[in-house]
Give the backbone structure.
Amino acid sequence: MNYAIDVKELTKKFKKSLVVNNINLQIRKGEIFGLLGPNGSGKTTTFRMICGLLTPSSGKGQTLGFDVVRESYQIKYQVGYMPQKFGLYDDLSIRENLEFIARMYKVSQPKKIVTDILEQLELSVRKEQLVATLSGGWKQRLALAGCMLRQPQLLLLDEPTAGVDPKARRDFWEELHRLSAQGITVLVSTHYMDEAERCHRLGYIANGELLTCGTPQELIANSRLSTFELTLSSHFKDEIIFSKYPELEAEINLLTGVELVTPFGASLHISGVDKQILQQSLTSYINNPNFLAKECEPSLEDVFIFLMRKTKH
């Protein structure tokens, strides 16, 4: 298999603190791989080791065919890295920012490359606009354009759509899939479940360890969660329904076999790893005419909240 990223037992320590612990990760060329996990789980540190910005304390592997320990300099010139914080110049226009970056990277024919990128990411209509006046969605698109100037084979995007409206996020992900179709590999971290579902494969990292990896469908299946959806019957008035849910959630959380209770709109998703025990515990609700109860497939969000809570215990 031809991997863009192939690392084994990647570990990073800062003094006595173990931030990333023995991560094994293989990502195919052209794949969009999502890395999920709580804040402080080691996602950004993993990104920086993969793209050559940090030297691993131990472990080995390759990024785009270059050794992550001995050839980090070569990796940097093949990777487009988009950090969490927007870092371009507010007092320059879109075009001026990109031309500056192109000169810094010593890109050949910088004006032509910038013109091509402006067209590709539909930034041409705003190319003379000052960055300070751009919305979050346009700034995000500009940051992606800056990553693309050297025509990288790998994009590392660290929570690139934080604080961006849903339409801008959707447009951004459509662009990522176009780049993937061209053979560009994308490694992205996100907290949005709708974005996670757009990835070809996902990994969940907590306390510096990669706990699970697979397609969204595989992660749901491998979680072994069974889920029931519980809704108060419609003959209740709305104002009564919503006032009852916090008490109902606390009550159900105490039942045997219940691992997770999560509000979903006007319903509760109740999950557990033993379907039979869970169903027995919910019998009084399932048979109660005041409730509507049905089994449903766990959502990706159910799975990741479950994993997050498990790692905290």
The longest helix spans residues 166-181. The CA atoms of residues 20 and 208 lie 4 Å apart.
